[in-house]
Design brief:
single chain, globular
Length: 179
């Protein structure tokens, strides 16, 4: 178990770890490391989280990993030895949390709508919304275990890179003067 996973488990009561991490990352791509814990509590509900100190510690660690120059960021999902359907479900939860956090972060920034975002951000958000709807119980058809695993790894990598691209684009927009 990673340190970040342990922090997430300490911070969340009724919220899956992947969803909590996705929510924090969605907010952090808009707000940087200064994710207001009270906004997170408002978004997910006070009953979903534990004590404030644990939540603050997790938020700080998750935001730091997201912004790390060593590119260590990855969606917080079950380990590779977990069943593929459990990892797929967690990836869907992560994406759903990210989208909620992104919406809250954009609102906090004063950005009215995704329509105001660059096209590449809108496309990534649409893809993440599709991933959030994934049903891990849907049969893989004729996909073998290895092919399904390779597809999952590719999807996870897309989520990682897409998240970093959204963060970079939003940071670049924040640096550009209006007009």
């Amino acid at each position: 178990m990673t340190d970040l996973t342990a922090l997430a488990l300490n911070a969340a009561h009724e919220l899956p770890v992947a969803e909590l991490h996705g929510t924090v990352c969605g907010m952090a791509v808009c707000l940087g490391a200064a994710v207001p814990v009270n906004d997170l509590v408002e978004l997910v509900g006070v009953e979903a989280l534990s004590d404030q100190a644990s939540v603050e510690e997790f938020v700080a660690a998750a935001a730091a990993e997201l912004e790390s120059e060593d590119m260590s960021f990855a969606p917080l999902l079950p380990a590779d030895d977990a069943a593929l359907d459990a990892r797929l479900e967690a990836l869907g939860q992560w994406c759903g949390g990210f989208l909620g956090g992104l919406a809250a972060g954009l609102a906090r920034r004063g950005t009215g709508s995704l329509k105001d975002m660059p096209e590449e951000v809108r496309e990534i958000v649409a893809d993440l919304a599709a991933i959030a709807q994934v049903d891990p119980d849907t049969p893989a058809g004729d996909r073998s275990g290895e092919a399904a695993e390779a597809d999952f790894v590719e999807l996870e990598e897309f989520v990682k890179v897409g998240t970093l691209l959204v963060m970079s684009t939003l940071a670049h927009e924040a640096d550009d003067p209006p007009g």
